[in-house]
Amino acid sequence: MSEHLHTALDLASHGVPVLPLRAGKVPFGNCPACAKNACGGRPNMKTPGPCTCPAPCHGWAAATTEPDVLRSGMWRRAWMRASSVAYHPGGAWLTVVDLDHAEAIAWARATLPTTRTVPTTRGEHWLYTGPMQSANAVRPGVDIKSSMQYARWLGPGAGTMAPLPDIVRALIVKEPAPVRTAAITVPAPVGGGTCPHRTPTYLDRGIAMAEQRITAASSAVHATVYRTFLAVLSTHGRCGCLTDAHAARLFTAAQAKGESARHCADAWTNALTMLGLSHV
Fold first, then answer.
1. Which of 125, 128, 270, 276: CA 20 to 30 A from 260?
2. pLDDT of residue 44
3. How far is CA 53 from the centre of its chain?
4. Is the peptide bond between 56 and the residue preceding it cis, with omega within 30 degrees of 0?
């Protein structure tokens, strides 16, 4: 039995899903039956779940805790050629903060809760209990390895493992893009009379209902955003009561549903044009 297979079996017995890595710290390529997703890509690299191929295919998805699989013929041949052992942190309910250099380690020591650490070739792995989405380059020299990712096994490390803190989860949260609002050009009230929509309660209720409608959309989000903009402008767009702040609230709700700032601006402009307000 190879040393790597022995290590893999020991990890698997403790509930850690493992897979072999070849030279270059990369997984073995897919077998001929799975090459170029000929198998249908089940599971592919974008979906969770174990690989059902008898070979160590599909990268991180091949990681397993089944000793019979690890000892099987195609896997055994891979272990004989393997350069190291990898594991799926998310599958073991772990998150690895991969620190690539001294500056990254210094940042972690000043910022993150103390936890178990494992020395690496260039830096350290900090291990926390609890999975999260993986992400590369969340800050200089820092990668997050957890769900749908693999990490090299470099030993058990030292220290007591801490629960995954919110500060690590926050590393993958991108700051929202600035909200772009289209220029709002609306005609003055006809006859110069008092606008019936200028009461704050009426307008705020209308904007809040529009935000709720966008937020509640479970499908056809593009169409919902456009129709909502159209409804708001048809009710409030001719009297001069809308401001950029109101539009920004609607744009923010739409972008929270995955709409781009450009699509929001286009939908707003198209609604203005439909109502004949764009050239007033």
1. 276
2. 46
3. 27
4. no
